[in-house]
């Protein structure tokens, strides 16, 4: 599929690394909301995209695993080639985001004249481990203290960027793993881009093997990138 002027105001970018059987229904559901669906194969080795190739979604491939941040930037660079697109959604491949909410994110982007809309997960279910709820609260408080911005959820990967912010990201951010999502927030705050949030359901699967987030190493990278960016600014 090409990004060359099909009807639809926003694209959906899905970074993917060994997501197993979860990714296919995610792509199918995203295609129900927009014809502009781009999957970034970040060096998958489990054959998870074999069935996805039969769908009208575009696939960009990294020859080896580089990290979610690099996959996000690859997706943004590709989607920006279509001058008709005004919104660029980021959606995880493991099924923990509901693609049916994509229009709500685009509506928030337009209604609030925002540049970055971040999903705010509602952690009110007993199925969500206390460590996840606690970690999200701590990161939100640290971000508020260091950046002076109130965001209910800083770690949610379900996001939508305006065109001007997507262009800024690909021009100034080097990429990485999960810390790129924190750098996205820092850049938005420090360079006067407008932020907004959309409440979303928390879809949590215990022992999700398709999640490659390392609670210690990746959390350390996130906090390091946050502090580094603040000090540099």
Question: Can you characterise this structure?
Answer:
With 233 residues, this protein is of the alpha/beta class. A seven-stranded mixed sheet has the order 3-2-1-4-6-5-7, sandwiched between helices. The chain is globular. It has one domain: Alpha-Beta Complex (Spore Coat Polysaccharide Biosynthesis Protein SpsA, Chain A), CATH 3.90.550. The chain has seven helices and seven strands; from the N terminus they run βαββαβαβαβααβα. α6 packs parallel to α7.
**Main CATH class:** Alpha Beta
Radius of gyration: 16 Å
Structural class: alpha/beta
Number of domains: 1
Q: Strand order across the biggest sheet?
A: 3-2-1-4-6-5-7
Provide tags for this entry.
single chain; 233 residues; alpha/beta; 7 helices
Short description:
With 233 residues, this protein is α/β, with parallel strands linked by helices.
SSE layout and pairings?
Elements (H helix, E strand, L loop, with lengths): L9 E7 L6 H9 L5 E6 L15 E5 L5 H12 L7 E4 L11 H10 L4 E7 L7 H18 L11 E4 H10 L6 H12 L4 E7 L15 H16 L1
Parallel strand pairs: 1-2, 1-4, 2-3, 5-7
Antiparallel strand pairs: 4-6, 5-6
